[in-house]
Amino acid sequence: MAYDYDPELAPWAARLAPVDYTDPVAARAAVRAVTERRPPYRPLGAVEVSEAAAPGPDGAPPVPLRVYRPAARDARPGPGLLYLHWGGFVCGGPDALHPTCLRLADRTGAVVIAPAYRLAPEHPFPAGLEDAYAALLWTAGDADRLGVDRDRLGIGGESAGGGLAAAVALLARDRGGPPLRMQCLMWPELDDRLETVSARAFTDTPKWNRACAQASWGHYLGPRHRPGADAVPAYAAPARAADLSGLPPAYVGACEYDPGRDEALIYAHRLIQAGVRTEIGYWPGTFHASVSVADAAVSRRMLMDQTDALVRGLGGTAHRTPHADTEEGKRT
Predict the structure, then answer these.
(1) What residue ranges are annotated as transmembrane (predicted)?
(2) Nearest alpha-carbon partner for 299 in 4, 8, 2
């Protein structure tokens, strides 16, 4: 199929081959290689980076965390953002998001917490979700030490991390957990059924296609649940949630040539219909996570849109120069 990519993105499209998620070992090696080749992000101000661990869910090990704190922030508690990494539920960790988390802390003034949740297929649903929720409980419980205002705590993530962020918001609502000021869902993985127009059509798109999504859901749901079956829980696939009322305000980002485009937009519209204040970022000519092409003007717009939404939603402080919202580098 021919795609009308943004002119600055088009030369990259053929070079950004999708990761083969059918083989988790090979997929992890590919993601590590991408991470190692990526240029570093240079913050405008100092960002303190430290390691921590949250108590794990019952019977599970502690959840490793990486904490990013803007050093120049004043002594008053400020916003906090739990941010979950991409990788199809199978790959990645804080290293994969390190430049992104530096950027978010630097640009928004938020303390950013990146958990290393357990990965499928070794640890299928609900392991990764429960780890992410445990990280949220730790963040709220340690808010004073972290310098985080408990009333300005957000959840966010990209791709699989965006889907987990949506699920954490559902869990926090249903379990009476820490109140969330907002959720930031960037090209989120939300629906195992893969029945939307975009999920059916985009079989050959860069970085992420229908086959990637199929393999990812199969690993994440594991032997207890078959993708597309009626019994898949909404906490695994938030698009299945019947009631979206009472969730925190949302920012939902979607790319035009992304199999997950429609599930993201449908979820955003359902949030609006449920009375949840929701903002949508939609960028024509883009593909899944195409912010990786840092030189493209549309990539800079995507990142500025996200930064602005987080600053508004969490009550942070934007830190920007004319070129402040370029991405950390090319994930190629």
Answers:
(1) none
(2) 8
The catalytically annotated residue of 258, 262, 305, 308 is 258
The verdict on whether 159 is a catalytic residue reads yes
Sequence-distant (6+) residues with CB within 8 A of 251 are 182, 183, 184, 185, 278, 279, 280, 281, 306, 309, 310, 313
- Mean of all residue pLDDT scores within the chain: 93
Residue ranges of domains in the chain: 10-314
pTM, full prediction = 0.94
On the question of a cis peptide bond just before residue 126, with omega within 30 degrees of 0, the verdict is yes
Report residue 162 as tokens.
């965006």
The CATH fold of domain 10-314 = Rossmann fold (3.40.50)
pLDDT in tens, 66-87: 999 998 776 789 999 999 999 9
The neighbouring-strand residues paired with 260 are none
pLDDT digits (tens, 9 = 90+) for 122-145: 999 999 999 999 999 999 999 999
Active site residue 225: no
Percent of the chain with pLDDT over 90: 83
pLDDT-derived band of residue 319, with 50, 70 and 90 as boundaries? low
Q: What is the pLDDT of residues 256-280, one digit of tens each?
A: 999 999 999 999 999 999 999 999 9
- Token readout for 274 is 């449920």
Report the relative pairing of strands 47-54 and 63-70 from DSSP bridges: antiparallel
